[in-house]
């Protein structure tokens, strides 16, 4: 659908969004202005949808707020709904009207086909591509039945039930559509917005689990007989050795799902009951959210950009596995990427391909380690270098030295907080005076689940309850401190005596799969090394001393950032406690 760029510019200016840079990018990349706006996430999806609907003069519908009966949703076949961006969401029998949501209201041929098929007059609404993709999940509410339905009837059981008997491999290959099942596992993981797929063998079954919003969910229990065939299919797609069953193997699967290019990072590990597969879904960086939308506050965003655009120095992102460290660094170097500078990376593995950036894959078979790769990159005239992870003293030493010789170095480190990152590096053998000279800042992060907006409810916590939940961290004092932002000047005087605070919870609904949560957002803390903090480090101060110095200098801790998000209804207090575990 073509959208008049002049009308789009006028609408953006009306809501105070500058358009000059957007117009220039559209011209340089030969993309439509609308596609540039979508790519850069200038507006939240619903706000952009309303704006476009107003321009093209069609009513807008937010599908996430509508409970669509399956029999109406399925009027348009799933593959057509995804390909054409069109679904039916309501029928009014009294007026003989069928309501249609589409990304292209001017697709009269498709709309006429639906009218002929149903015998109803069409009432057309505009909606966004994301809205269509999210609602498609309703096609798959019974994933277990979908998967088991692919098996021969006599295999639709679990061994715990005491039914069925083992089948020889030859019979499985003849009767079971392994290729179809494995492809479906990938497809539905993508549609459910899973970050990881686990296929593991237990004593009696093969269990498939998806990690959605950071939590693993059992999707289906297959009979144990098909496990080996699933592993073999995965190895073939990932280019791994199918005859190797006693060693760990890593690979990558690139495929097309719902017309989108999708990649999976594959890890296969031998376990007691058989080989286990874990596949990490790698979403293209073009589709990733920007730093502000990821949860970084405006103040922290400015600190990150200021420190990453310095001509030399080091920025380290810390956190546990799966906390989004790599995505944060990718978003930063994506912002820095231009024809005027040379950005190189050394990674294990390369998770996302970024145009214009020289990315190198670690290869232990050829002795291309992080340390050796980093040495080689220094001879490639780089301006900025991304080192996937600091794992040892050698890599840390070269990275530090590189940052002190005219290069901006980015990397990740496993540590619980920014302050803990300093002693972690010292334990690796890096001298404190080198750390204080090289590091510009450290960023710590976690990912927490967002409350589902469809079933959010307010909950009142008393000071006594908060104290019992988080007594050791002075939760009440922290909540009072942060609550100042949510009270008027007259109310702040009474805050000291306030005994109740309002937080929020998701009660569970169809939209969120009855979990109460939908999507994730980051918690952050940014520690900039000022002179006072450097003095504490040089004097051998502990991580607690470094954190205390940073807080005195104005740093907002991850816990405080989490409480602020909980008070504003983005996430729940329980989720903050679960993830930070401070």
Characterise this structure.
With 582 residues, the protein is an alpha/beta fold. It has three domains: 141-282, Beta-Lactamase (2-Layer Sandwich); 287-447 and 521-555, P-loop containing nucleotide triphosphate hydrolases (Rossmann fold, 3-Layer(aba) Sandwich); 450-520, no CATH class. Helices cover 38% and strands 24% of the residues. The protein contains 25 helices and 18 strands. It has a seven-stranded mixed β-sheet with strand order 12-11-13-14-10-15-18, sandwiched between helices. A six-stranded antiparallel β-sheet has the order 6-5-4-9-8-7. Strands 1-2-3 form a three-stranded mixed β-sheet. A hairpin with a 4-residue loop joins strand 1 and strand 2. The radius of gyration is 26 Å and the shape is globular. The model is unreliable at 160-164 (pLDDT under 50).
In the CATH hierarchy, the architecture of the largest domain is 3-Layer(aba) Sandwich
State the CATH topology of the largest domain.
Rossmann fold
CATH class of the largest domain: Alpha Beta
Give the % helix. Answer: 25-40%
Number of helical regions: 25
Largest sheet: 7 strands, mixed
Q: Supply the number of structural domains.
A: 3
The counted number of beta strands is 18
Strand order of the largest sheet: 12-11-13-14-10-15-18
Shape: globular
- Rg, rounded, reads 26 Å
- The CATH superfamily of the largest domain bears the name P-loop containing nucleotide triphosphate hydrolases
Determine the structural class based on helices, strands and strand pairing: alpha/beta
């Amino acid at each position: 659908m073509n959208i008049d760029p002049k009308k789009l510019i006028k609408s953006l200016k009306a809501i105070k969004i500058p358009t000059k840079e957007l117009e220039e990018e559209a011209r340089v990349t030969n993309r439509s202005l609308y596609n540039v706006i979508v790519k850069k996430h200038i507006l939240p999806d619903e706000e952009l949808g309303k704006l476009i609907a107003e321009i093209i003069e069609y009513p807008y519908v937010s599908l996430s707020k509508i409970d669509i009966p399956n029999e109406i949703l399925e009027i348009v076949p799933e593959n057509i709904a995804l390909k054409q961006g069109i679904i039916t969401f309501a029928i009014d029998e009294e007026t003989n009207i069928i309501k249609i949501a589409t990304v292209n209201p001017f697709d009269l041929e498709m709309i006429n086909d639906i009218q002929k098929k149903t015998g109803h007059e069409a009432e057309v609404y505009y909606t966004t591509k994301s809205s269509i993709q999210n609602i498609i999940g309703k096609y798959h509410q019974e994933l277990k039945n979908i998967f088991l339905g692919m098996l021969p009837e006599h295999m639709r059981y679990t061994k715990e039930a005491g039914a069925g008997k083992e089948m020889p491999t030859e019979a499985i290959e003849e009767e079971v559509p392994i290729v179809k099942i494995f492809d479906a596992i990938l497809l539905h993981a993508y549609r459910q917005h899973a970050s990881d797929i686990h296929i593991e063998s237990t004593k009696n079954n093969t269990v498939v689990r998806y990690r959605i919003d950071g939590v693993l969910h059992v999707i289906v229990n297959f009979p144990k007989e098909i496990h080996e065939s699933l592993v073999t299919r995965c190895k073939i797609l990932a280019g791994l050795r199918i005859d190797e069953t006693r060693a760990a193997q890593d690979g990558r699967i690139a495929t097309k799902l719902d017309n989108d290019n999708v990649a999976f990072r594959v890890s296969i590990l031998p376990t007691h009951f058989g080989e286990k597969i874990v596949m990490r879904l790698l979403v293209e960086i073009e589709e990733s959210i920007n730093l502000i939308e990821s949860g970084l506050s405006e103040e922290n965003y400015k600190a990150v950009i200021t420190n990453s655009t310095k001509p030399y120095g080091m920025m380290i992102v810390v956190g546990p596995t799966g906390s989004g460290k790599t995505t944060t660094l990718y978003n930063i170097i994506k912002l820095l990427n231009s024809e005027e500078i040379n950005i190189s990376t050394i990674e294990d593995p390369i998770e996302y391909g970024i145009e214009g950036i020289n990315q190198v894959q670690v290869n232990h078979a050829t002795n291309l380690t992080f340390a050796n790769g980093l040495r080689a990159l220094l001879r490639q005239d780089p301006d900025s270098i991304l080192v996937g992870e600091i794992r040892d003293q050698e890599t840390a030493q070269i990275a530090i030295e590189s940052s002190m010789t005219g290069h901006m170095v980015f990397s990740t480190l496993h540590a619980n907080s920014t302050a803990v990152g300093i002693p972690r590096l010292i334990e690796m053998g890096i001298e404190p005076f080198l750390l204080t000279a090289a590091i510009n800042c450290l960023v710590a992060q976690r990912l927490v689940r967002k409350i589902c907006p469809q079933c959010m409810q307010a909950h009142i916590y008393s000071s006594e309850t908060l104290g019992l939940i988080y007594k050791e961290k002075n939760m009440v004092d922290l909540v009072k401190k942060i609550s100042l932002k949510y009270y008027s000047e007259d109310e702040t005087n009474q805050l000291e005596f306030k005994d109740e605070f309002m937080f929020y919870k998701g009660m569970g609904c169809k939209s969120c799969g009855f979990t109460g949560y939908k999507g994730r957002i980051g918690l952050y803390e940014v520690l900039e090394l000022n002179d006072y903090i450097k003095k504490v480090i040089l004097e051998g101060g502990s991580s607690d001393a470094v954190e205390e110095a940073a807080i005195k200098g104005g740093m907002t801790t991850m816990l405080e950032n989490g409480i602020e998000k909980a008070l504003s209804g983005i996430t729940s207090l329980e989720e903050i406690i679960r993830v930070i575990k401070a």
